[in-house]
C-alpha cells in the first residue's frame, strides 16, 4: 500500500453509515429563510458601524461580513468536491451526509449576512451581483479528495468558520443584538459540522491508522475556500482579527487538541504534526522540521511521544495523566523513585522542545 492510498473495510464503511444516520436524525437548518423577509429594517447594523473597535474602519467591517456572505454562498461548489470524493472512493456515507444534512443547512447560511449588509445600506442588486460573481468562479480545493482528506478539511474549515461567525456576533452584540443572534445561530451549526467531521475523521483513523498520513497532508496544504473565491477579503482576514478580539492561541489549541484526539496517542500525534511541519517547510527552533524528523526516525521513533507531549505543553494542554503519575511516583518515605527522576529529566527535555515550537501556522490558515 502506498502512503497516500485510501482504504477502509466494509465493516468500517458500515460504521460510518451508522454515524451519518445518527447525525441525520438531528439534521436541521440555521435559519428559516421566511424569518428573514424584511428583517434588515430592524437589524441596526449602521449603529455598529458608528461605534467600531479602535483601528477598524467601516470598510474593514463590511469586508468582514462580506467574507462570511461570499464564502457561505458557494455551498454547491464545495459539495461538488465532496460528491466527487464520495463517488471515486465508494464512500456512500459521505455523499449521503453531504446531500441530506450538510447542503440543506449550508443553504441557509448566506442570507443572514446578506440581511446584515442590507441593513448597513447596501443595495440588493449590488450584493446579488457579488454573490453571482463568486458562484461563477472556479473553486480551487487546496487539499486531496479522499474521504478522510475531505472530512479533515471539513473539520478545520468548519472550526475556522465557526470562529469567524463568533467574531462577527461579538462585533454586533452591543448595538445590533438581533443581527448578533442570527450570526450566532449560523455559528452553532458550524460547531456541529466541526464536531461531525471530526467524528467521521476519528472513526476512519480508528479503522485504518495508516490514513493519518492523509490527515497530515490535509493539515499541510489547508487553505480557506475564500482564498480562491473571495481573495480580496480572505487575504485580509488575519489583519482584521486582532481588532475583532480573536484569540489565535485558543484556535491553535483547539486545532492541535483535535489532531491529538484523532491521532489517538501523543506519539502518533507527534509524528503527524512533525509530518505537517515537514510538508510545510517549517522549523522547530533553529532546526528544520525535516532534520528533526530524520533525527527522531534514527532513534527508532521513540522521540515522537516526547514531541507530542511537548506540543501539548506548548499549547497549555495537560500532558497524559500516566506520564504525570510516573513523574510524581515516590517511594515510602516520600523519596522520588528512579523512574520519577528519569521522567522529570524527560520533562525538562520536553519543556525545552516546547519552547522551540511555533504553532502559529496552525491558527493562521
Ligand atoms: Fe456555513
Ligand atoms: Fe458548515
Brief digest:
With 365 residues, this protein is mostly helical. It is built from 20 helices and two strands.
Structural summary, described in words:
The protein has 365 residues and is mainly alpha-helical. It has two domains: 237 residues, Ribonucleotide Reductase, subunit A; 101 residues, no CATH class. It is built from 20 helices and two strands. It has a two-stranded antiparallel ribbon with strand order 1-2. Helix 1 runs parallel beside helix 5. The radius of gyration is 23 Å and the shape is globular. The two termini are 30 Å apart. The model has no long low-confidence stretch (mean pLDDT 90). The site of one fe (ii) ion has 5 residues, from loops.
SSE string, helices as H and strands as E = HHHHHHHHHHHHHHHEEHHHHH
Rg, Cα atoms, Å = 23 Å
Structural class: mainly alpha
Oligomeric state of the chains present here: single chain
CATH topology of the largest domain: Ribonucleotide Reductase, subunit A
> Any idea what the shape is?
globular
Full CATH superfamily name of the largest domain: Ribonucleotide Reductase, subunit A
Low-confidence stretches: none
Largest sheet: 2 strands, antiparallel
CATH 2nd-level architecture of the largest domain: Orthogonal Bundle
Count of separate structural domains:
2
Percentage of residues in helical conformation: 55-70%
| CATH class label of the largest domain | Mainly Alpha
